[in-house]
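Thread amino acids onto this structure.
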């Protein structure tokens, strides 16, 4: 019953707007005048679309797959001139990159916000410059939705709920103590996966979250935090990790403590990247909720529409699945990432 979470849905429709189109069309000419790069066509337009993309960092296997999807899709052959920057998980680096894309006069800015808050000022600057912004992967908490055209990404609350429902039904038929490895503090997936899990387990008195700390979505910090959990508690039944990498770090810590991951301490994670799926198939992880990182094609499609002044959806929810150990064994041979 957990195998298919949600088909891709397109929610509230909005107009990109004639004003945005007029301004974007102006900047299109300034962004690139390299007609040779337009050989693959850009969906009917004559100009190459210059796009500045500010990536969160390279913190996880998920992020590596997401970066590859974006770089493989926003190519000259497909009608794009991509400027890509890696913010190393620092908001100030992303703000700096966005300001530099504004100064360059790119046609479109896209970014995956490292944290939810603190974007209004720089988004206002992009809006004043007439440059449309597309959010990928992670949300911002701006109340003014006119500051961006569209947000493409998974439903992180639903991911947390799916993890919590599986735990509640499959493990918490007796009392269990849970430790939680949270993602980056202030990041949408950390906030939402925590909330979704808590909501889904709140009506099961057998589930007790005895500790919860950030591992910053990295394998090394996941391992360090898990070592601390193991020193502080001798009664851990389950690790709920907000991504595979932290779960994989936890496996290292559990094995180093002489325990068997997946048996002595159960593990549930989010992402379903290859390393995580391998650990699931090997019995070291017990359940994974997928977060699909292949956002490049949707980003390309929305960017083309925005530049062409077409209507785009304000929120595009990407399709995800979830995997048991048996399903991981079946899925691994053809897994794309
Ligand atoms: O925003 C998506 C999350 O960011 C992924 O789940 C995690 O692995 C990454 O660091």
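Threaded sequence (337 positions):
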């Amino acid at each position: 019953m957990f195998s298919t979470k949600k088909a891709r849905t397109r929610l509230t429709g909005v107009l990109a707007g004639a004003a945005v189109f007029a301004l974007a069309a102006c900047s299109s000419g300034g962004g690139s005048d390299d007609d040779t790069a337009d050989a693959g066509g850009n969906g009917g337009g004559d100009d190459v679309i210059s796009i500045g993309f500010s990536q969160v960092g390279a913190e996880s296997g998920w992020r590596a797959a997401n970066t590859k999807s974006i770089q493989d899709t926003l190519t000259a052959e497909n009608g794009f001139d991509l400027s890509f920057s890696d913010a190393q998980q620092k908001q100030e680096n992303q703000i700096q990159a966005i300001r530099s894309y504004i100064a360059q006069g790119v046609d479109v800015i896209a970014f995956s916000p490292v944290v939810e808050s603190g974007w209004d000022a720089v988004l206002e600057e992009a809006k004043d410059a007439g440059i449309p912004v597309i959010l990928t992967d992670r949300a911002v908490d701006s109340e003014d939705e006119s500051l961006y055209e569209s947000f493409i990404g998974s439903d992180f609350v639903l991911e947390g709920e799916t993890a919590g429902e599986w735990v509640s039904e499959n493990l918490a038929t007796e009392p269990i103590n849970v430790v939680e490895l949270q993602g980056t503090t202030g990041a949408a997936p950390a906030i939402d996966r925590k909330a979704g899990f808590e909501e889904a387990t709140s009506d099961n008195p057998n589930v007790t979250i005895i500790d919860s700390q950030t591992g910053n979505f990295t394998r090394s910090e996941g391992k360090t935090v898990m070592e601390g959990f193991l020193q502080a508690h001798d009664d851990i039944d389950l690790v709920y990790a907000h991504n595979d990498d932290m779960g994989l770090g936890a496996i290292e810590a559990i094995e180093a403590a002489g325990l068997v991951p997946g048996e002595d301490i159960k593990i549930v994670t989010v992402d379903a990247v290859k390393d995580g799926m391998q650990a699931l198939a090997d019995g070291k992880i017990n359940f994974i909720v997928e977060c699909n990182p292949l956002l490049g094609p949707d980003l390309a499609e929305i960017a083309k529409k925005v530049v062409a002044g077409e209507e785009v959806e304000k929120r595009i929810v990407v399709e995800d699945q979830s995997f048991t150990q048996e399903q991981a064994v079946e899925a691994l041979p053809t897994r794309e990432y």
